[in-house]
Amino acid sequence: MLLLSLMWSCSFMGDRKKKQYSPIEFDLSRDTGPFGGLGANVPISFYSRRMKPLQTLNDLGIKVIRVKREDDNWDNILALRRATQRLGIKWIYSLDDIPMSFVNQQGKLIDVAGFAQWWAEEVDELSYQEVPADYIELLDAPDLSSSDSLPLSPDSYNALIHATRKELDLRGFQQVGIVGPGLSRPDLPGDLERWYMDLDQEAFESLDRWTVQIWDDSTEGGRHGNALEGLVNYLAEIESLKPIIVSAYATTQTTFDQQEYPDPAQYDLLGNLNTFETYYYSASFSMPYALRVYSNTLKLLEPGGITPLVYQIYDAPADVKFKKRSWGLLDLNGVAKPVFTMLTNLIKRIPDNAVIVPPVEKPQPNLTSLTFKTQKRVVLTICNEASQTKAIQVHLYGLTRTLELAQTVSLITPEINPVERGKRDVVETLEAEPKIRYDGENQSYLFTVTMAPQSILIAEFRVK
């Protein structure tokens, strides 16, 4: 690692210099709930010796995966099972579309009982192959419209929960949970009432987890936060204590610092066109995209007890070659993109049984911060998405015990590659040892840090 020296400073001048810094404060006596870990969407057609799935899932601390079974390639399914079994990872099965035999020409579900039976038969076949099906998500984003009609109405969804639970129980699969509703976003007008309150009591109780996708919060230019907060508050109002799984997240933002990057949903062809493994390039290879996804991760974790599932964990050959998609955290050769490097550096430092401590006030624009705490350790992270250096003063209080700095690292990139180069940004890890000032009168700790443009900070503390 490189030694970071000039980028750090410690202020002993107290409030006299405070206005020179962007303040970030944490009251460590309060928390919003447990750290629920990360999950991931994993393509079934993933198998490749270069991917090292066991190591990849372990590095990200994955607690749950979401898969969509597109074929009967049992070699791939069983290979994924072996990787997840050793780590105790839970499986969620989902699917994009209702099989055509159960819908009419307008895309409306007309055979609820038949579709419920189909799901039970899927679980039965997975069980026969000794593949986990801990949860099933009846449909991916049933609120999305097609030809001005919903693929699934809330009433049909309510009936489908009843029918599927009955079919699962008849086959002895009481342990298989149903999660949902899996909406495409949590803040569409009227959806909270239609998809949550319109469930009858039995259907409400039959859902083991709430699931929702949160790609972007349009009011914050591609950042998450407001929409999820509204959903969390709404569920509290209706007295629902079910855990929340964000079943797919990243960002759809592709313009950073007035630079337009190829969309990961449909990337541009660059470089060597003779081999599909080397020419593809999208925003997902860039540091600005990685910082936005890292920031979104912190925002999704902030309410506590939420498990966000990255979309997706690696680029799949079929996606890259035929669909021109590159959402993965790893490329086709298993090489880490910047977002994978940044997330793994954070996750590996968060202790077991940590709780989430949000900042007392929302940080200034382009800054996102969060703290993870146990009785023995505190892990603080700050994300600076700005293209300018940020001088920050961190204020920690609310502890009755001593806080001691263990390690601090910053992740930066020496150069943001221009789009036309079509090259993955390289992330470097820098170490530093900032000094902490203890304010005995207020029983708090202060330190200052000057963060490089487009970088993240991770600081680990021991509680003694």
Concise structural overview:
The protein is an alpha/beta fold and 464 residues long.
Layout: helices, strands, pairs:
Elements: E1 2-3, E2 8-9, E3 22-27, E4 33-34, E5 38-41, H1 53-59, E6 62-68, H2 74-85, E7 90-94, H3 112-128, E8 135-137, H4 154-170, E9 177-183, H5 191-197, H6 201-206, E10 207-213, H7 226-237, E11 244-249, E12 255-256, E13 259-260, E14 268-269, H8 276-279, E15 280-281, H9 287-301, E16 306-310, H10 317-323, H11 338-347, E17 355-357, E18 367-373, E19 377-384, E20 390-397, E21 403-412, E22 428-432, E23 437-439, E24 444-451, E25 455-463
Parallel strand pairs: 1-22, 3-20, 5-6, 5-16, 6-7, 7-8, 8-9, 9-10, 10-11, 11-16
Antiparallel strand pairs: 2-24, 4-17, 12-13, 14-15, 17-18, 18-19, 19-25, 20-24, 21-22, 21-25, 23-24
Helix pairs in contact: 3-4, 9-11
Secondary structure category = alpha/beta
Strand content: 25-35%
Q: Could you say what the CATH topology of the largest domain is called? A: TIM Barrel
- Oligomeric status: single chain
User: Mean pLDDT, nearest integer?
Assistant: 86
Q: In the CATH hierarchy, what is the architecture of the largest domain at level 2?
A: Alpha-Beta Barrel
Give structural notes.
With 464 residues, the chain is of the alpha/beta class. It has helices at residues 53-59, 74-85, 112-128, 154-170, 191-197, 201-206, 226-237, 276-279, 287-301, 317-323, 338-347, and strands spanning 2-3, 8-9, 22-27, 33-34, 38-41, 62-68, 90-94, 135-137, 177-183, 207-213, 244-249, 255-256, 259-260, 268-269, 280-281, 306-310, 355-357, 367-373, 377-384, 390-397, 403-412, 428-432, 437-439, 444-451, 455-463. It has an eight-stranded mixed sheet, with helices on one face. An eight-stranded parallel beta barrel has the order 5-6-7-8-9-10-11-16.
